[in-house]
Specification:
The chain is α/β, with parallel strands linked by helices and about 325 residues long. It folds into 2 domains: about 230 residues, Rossmann fold; about 70 residues, no CATH class. It is built from 12 helices and 9 strands. Strands 1-3-2-4-5-8-9 form a 7-stranded mixed β-sheet. Helix 4 packs across helix 5. The chain is globular, with a radius of gyration of 19 Å.
Length: about 325
């Protein structure tokens, strides 16, 4: 079908995790968040794109709206094509968000998974959503996992793309990218080609360079281009972005469908991490795709066509 979640995803044992939804009423308030010790003032409003189905393909009443969360240096525009494919396939609205310090969302000095999860919770509340299905890649995946673990009543299902609920140092490439972006900004480039020549010293992959340079824009009244992301804040936050806010699965778990999509050339979901994933997400399923960490951009057609499902197992054996 050439789409992100073709029919065989929905008919498989896992039920594509996006269709296995409850219809429990929306019951939540800011007071509950405070009672759980989340004394965080959220960043709002988060910028978003809403992709809606046509009238003929409107979802059933119990179909979950989808929240799509990008990774580090990403934005809602990176998920535009996949979001539209999900809308066509599932007939449900997709909210592609810009997380704090990314895209068109506000900047804030604090950048970790607790606050990003709280931002997304506030977005869900502000838009009167319920039983959402959350898809996240990389940084967005850990944000989605934190949201599901802390406020499970708000989340119907989870798709984590190439990240696990563990503490693991980020690939050194991310720090390298920030150094390159800082050099670009200091050079006051006026054309993207100039920026690309600088970034080639830090990254050889053209698709990844294009992804990073997608953050460039020209402020009104200026000749030089600037990055939308606050490089100083993200540079200080890199160590925290390898962490996960919860360490003990016995104290917190998400007892609903969860799909973990792993890039086989990436190190962010290893076999040794599977017991921890199962502890936090007892109903998890695992899917592999032949790609690295940037698997959606590296293998977009494979990801969209559902080839990722061909090697999916039931609950993996973890010994």
């Amino acid at each position: 079908m050439g789409a992100f979640f073709p029919s065989r995803w929905r008919l498989c044992k896992c039920q594509c995790v996006l269709n296995n939804l409850s219809t429990s009423p929306f019951v939540f308030s800011h007071a509950i968040a405070i009672s759980r010790g989340v004394h965080i003032e959220p960043v709002r409003p988060l910028a978003f794109d809403l992709h809606e189905p046509t009238a003929s393909k409107t979802s059933e009443p119990n179909q979950a709206p989808i929240i799509f969360l990008h990774g580090l240096f990403g934005s809602k525009k990176n998920n535009r094509g996949i979001s539209k494919a999900l809308v066509r396939d599932l007939g449900t609205p997709v909210y592609a968000l810009d997380l704090r310090n990314h895209g068109e969302s506000p900047h804030h000095q604090r950048h970790d998974y607790r606050v990003m999860a709280r931002d997304v919770l506030t977005f869900i509340q502000d838009h009167s959503l319920r039983n959402v299905a959350v898809i996240g890649h990389s940084m967005g995946a850990k944000t989605a996992m934190a949201l599901a673990l802390f406020w499970p009543e708000m989340v119907a299902s989870l798709v984590s793309v190439d990240n696990a609920p563990v503490n693991v140092a980020l690939n050194q490439d991310f720090a390298k990218y920030i150094h390159g972006m800082i050099e670009i900004q200091a050079a006051n480039v006026t054309r993207q080609a100039e920026a690309d020549r600088i970034l080639q010293k830090y990254e050889t992959s053209l698709p990844i360079r294009q992804f990073l340079l997608g953050n460039l824009y020209r402020p009104k009244g200026e000749d030089a281009q600037r990055f939308r992301v606050p490089l100083d804040i993200l540079a200080r936050s890199l160590d925290h972005l390898g962490d996960f806010p919860y360490a003990d699965p016995s104290k917190r778990s998400f007892e609903k469908p969860a799909l973990f999509v792993r890039g086989t050339k990436s190190r962010y979901i290893t076999h040794e991490m599977l017991p921890t994933i199962k502890g936090f997400f007892p109903q998890f399923r695992l899917a592999d795709i032949d790609a690295g960490h940037w698997l959606i951009s590296e293998q977009p057609e494979a990801f969209r066509k559902g080839e990722v499902i061909t090697r999916r197992t039931s609950v993996p054996r973890i010994v």
